[in-house]
Amino acid sequence: xxxxxxxxxxxxxxxxxxxxxxxxxxxxxxxxxxxxxxxxxxxxxxxxxxxxxxxxxxxxxxxxxxxxxxxxxxxxxxxxxxxx
Length: 84
Fold this sequence. Notes:
The protein is of the alpha+beta class and 84 residues long. It has one helix spanning 15-31, and strands spanning 2-7, 39-43, 46-55, 58-67, 70-80. The longest helix is centred in the N-terminal third of the chain and has 17 residues, at 15-31. The relative contact order is 0.27.
């Protein structure tokens, strides 16, 4: 898997807040025995959204965080099996 994320609005969210929201969201998603997107999680005024296409063999996706209605963080990822 390869991924690249960045803060879009540094005046509205810190790196620490971003990391905490991602960790909380992914922990909840993984507890559902899920890996790929179609997931949304809200805490306070932050909403984490993850979307993806494909399956574990070949996938692409995007995750982002909203503060209210403003997109403050975004990450793009892709990956798949190297050898089946």
